[in-house]
Amino acid sequence: MTVWVYVPIVLSAALALLAGPIAARSAPAAGALALAGAALTAAVTSTASLILLVATLIDDLPPPLVARNEPGRPQLPQPVPDVIAITAIVLLMIALVRCGTDVRRRGEVHRRLREAGRPGEGGVVIADWAAPYAVAVPGRPGHVLLTTGLIRLLTPAERRVVLAHEQSHLSRRHHRITAAAAVAAALNPLLIPVRDAVSYLVERWADEDAAAAVGDRHLTARSVAKAALATLDRPAGAPDSSPGRGSGVNGMHGARQSHALSRVRAMTTPAPRANRAGLIALGLLSLAFIVTDAAATSDFITFAAAWLP
Q1: Which of 3, 54, 186, 217 has its CA 20 to 30 A from that of 228?
Q2: What share of the chain is helix, strand, coil (3-state, %, to 5)?
Q3: Range of the domain at 156
Q4: pTM value?
């Protein structure tokens, strides 16, 4: 087999390097969707590369396959060293375990949040928890979970921002976007920066929707800042809704601390325009993943045809 089988793995590292700059310069909605799509493409093709590397072990199978290499016939070359194929087996097993663990953890957190109470008027659950907390809980129907700890910290205007933010997560189905990026990162750890960039962008997306709903970007910035500061005092053991941590739900209050300052700064400036150059780069990179994976698959078919009777 040729180097094509390794290219999706190398391209995954390139995507990880591009994720941060693209997230910083893109309109949140377009950037989140494009990065999540590219991450899924990278995860599928890099996983396919591992599977192809594992499949090359057919050259070690017993007769009748080895009959093709009987004395007097030209010796067929090994497609890849066995140590590489065995390493691919280990990496593939680790990826599947990581993916299963991520899906299970998301399901557990979602179940715990839905057990907090039934939504009342307006699709809101008020939980009597000291921890300041707000999260969008997807489902049929979805609802917003607010804790009394957070309600006490916010003014009525700031509460409207929080509710608008969480409603954006529900209506835009942000949990699906973050889950896709998280599964991609579980399958391919090189994509963790992409997962984090998608997490940041969906929070920015909800911030922009909240600002549009209340008509005040500075109020939204203040609400984001207060919610982020409140998380510093959250007791240990409180559920974490950050999509970047793989919980399966989205939350303004649970957003990663490293993103908070960037979000506040973004809300003090005009809404960003579409980053066409970044989106084109992601499109070309996704196409490169598909083309190289197709080339690697073609190489494997040629190899298999030579070995199989």
Answers
A1: 186
A2: 70, 5, 25
A3: 3-307
A4: 0.84
Q: Which two tokens stand for residue 209?
A: 């929707």
Burial environment of residue 174 by CB neighbours within 10 A (0 to 12, 13 to 18, 19 or more): buried
d(CA 303, CA 77): 9
Is there a contact between 43 and 221 (Cβ–Cβ < 8 Å)?
Answer: no
Phi-psi region of 135 (alpha: psi -120 to 50; beta: other; left: phi over 0): beta
Q: What does the block give as tokens for 293?
A: 């994976």
Tell me: the pLDDT tens digits for 10-35? Answer: 999 999 999 999 998 889 999 999 99
In degrees and rounded to multiples of 5, residue 271 shows phi and psi of -60, 135
CB 168 within 8 A of CB 28: no
Q: Which of 267, 157, 248, 148 is nearest to 206 (CA)?
A: 267
Please name the amino acid found at residue 62.
P
The letter for the amino acid at 44 is V
Q: How many domains does the chain have?
A: 1
CA–CA–CA angle 26, 138, 256 (5° rounding) = 45
**CA pair distance 166, 238, nearest whole angstrom:** 18
Enumerate long-range contacts of 103-108, CB under 8 Å, 24 or more apart.
Answer: 103/183, 105/246, 105/247, 105/248, 106/179, 106/182, 106/246, 106/247, 106/248, 106/249, 107/248
What gap in Å lies between CA 22 and CA 194, rounded to an integer? Answer: 10
Question: Residues, the chain, total?
Answer: 309
Q: How far apart are CA 242 and CA 99, in angstroms?
A: 17
Q: Are 209 and 160 in contact (CB under 8 A)?
A: no
For the purposes of burial, counting CB atoms within 10 Å of the CB of 77, is it exposed (0-12), middle (13-18) or buried (19 or more)? exposed
Cα 145 from Cα 239, distance rounded (Å): 12
| 85-96 per-position pLDDT tens digit | 889 999 999 999
